[in-house]
Amino acid sequence: MGFFTVGIVQTALEVGLVYSLIALSLFLSFSILDICDLSTDGCYTLGCAVGAVMTVAGHPIAGIFCAMLAGVCSGFVTALLQTVFGVPSILAGIIVNTGLYTINLAVMGFSSNVSIFGTDTVFSLWGNLLDSAFWKSWSDFFLLLLIAAVVCVLLNFFLKTRLGLSIRATGDSRPMVRASSINPNLMVIIGLCLSNSLTGLAGSLIAQYNKMSDINLGTGMVTIALASLIIGETLFGRGRMMIRIVGVVAGAVLYRFIMAIALRLNVPTEAFKLVSALIVAIAIAAPEAKRLISFESRKIRTRRARMAQAAGSRKKGGMQ
Questions:
Q1: Domain total of the chain
Q2: Which of 6, 39, 279, 315 is deepest in the core (most CB within 10 A)?
Q3: Residue 151's domain spans which residues?
Q4: What is the DSSP letter of 269?
Q5: Strands (E), the chain
Q6: Does the residue 126 lie in any domain?
């Protein structure tokens, strides 16, 4: 049996595509708006809880949109704390994330988990469109790929509109945006609402994918999203917007493959958070390490050239 089975590859691709939506959320808040939003963990669980409850009620498709709306509400509160009340972005994220724990419990009927086994989900509805064995096996992947592709196209289009360009400019320089008669606080609110709607979307999809919601499901998601984002930007650079967006998706899938390798190497599940932290650290340090290695290589080449030149000069002087 190979190192990777078809099942492992398939799961890595599917979960990686779900993670890519959270990474795109962080791309908006962290890379575009230059805001560190730490409410991601709670917002992801909120989307998961809302999606699960709506699915149990028999509305799996509506559950996705309700989860996105719940994410918008979470982003609005986070942005409101920052823009109106002057709370630092890190602290605002922590406050919202803490408050969401109780809200998520309330959404799930003050139960730590909700099971949706035996209930139709968007994946089962999509899978029933065709009867072939191949489609039944890979339908989840195709649905997630379609959703990720649509999100990428819409996000790329939005960031090129006048509103999207204003949000991008806000992340670059708020004083410049304010001088251009654009309200930077409004741009922050819109950006964080949109960002958290993607997190809510990811939560609702993972709830229906796993057929359950758990209060601790979102723990560490901000680390996963950050790792995916940095891996994507390290590999694809900061070129055209669509390339950057696709790079984030690729980074999320690659991150999931790295975790799959860790599983195949029998790394204990208790060590996964450490593995995630190491991936983030390596991804962040990679560009600087590359620059330092290049700089040291140039120094060595220059030193060798000078030594060769000096040796040639001494040899020439000795012959004279």
A1: 1
A2: 39
A3: 6-218
A4: G
A5: 113-115, 212-214
A6: yes
Residue 282 resides in a domain:
no
Q: For the segment 201-210, what is each residue's pLDDT rounded down to a tens digit?
A: 999 999 999 9
Would you state the structure tokens that stand for residue 83, as one six-digit string? 């823009």
What type of residue sits at position 58?
A: G
d(CA 13, CA 17): 6
Rounded Cα–Cα distance for residues 188 and 27 (Å):
14
Structure token digits, residue 81:
């704390």
User: CA-CA distance, 162 to 159, in Å (whole number)?
Assistant: 8
131-170 pLDDT, tens digit per residue, is: 999 999 999 999 999 999 999 999 999 999 999 999 999 9
Domain presence at residue 29: yes
What one-letter code names the amino acid at 301? R
List, as own/partner pairs, every contact residues 15-18 make where C-beta atoms lie below 8 angstroms and the sequence separation is at least 24, other chains included: 15/206, 15/209, 15/256, 16/252, 16/253, 16/254, 16/255, 16/256, 16/257, 17/141, 17/144, 17/145, 17/147, 17/148, 17/249, 17/252, 17/253, 18/144, 18/202, 18/205, 18/206, 18/209
- Residue 135 counted as domain residue: yes
CA 228 to CA 50: how far, in whole Å? Answer: 25
For residue 196, give both structure tokens: 């958290």
* pTM, 2 dp: 0.89
Query: Where is 221: in which H helix or E strand?
Result: helix 221-236
Is the Cβ–Cβ distance between 34 and 3 less than 8 Å?
A: no
The amino acid occupying position 261 is I
Rg (the chain; Cα; Å): 24
| CB under 8 A, 24+ apart: contacts of 87-95 | 89/35, 89/36, 89/37, 90/36, 90/38, 92/39, 93/36, 93/37, 93/38, 93/39, 93/40, 94/38, 94/39
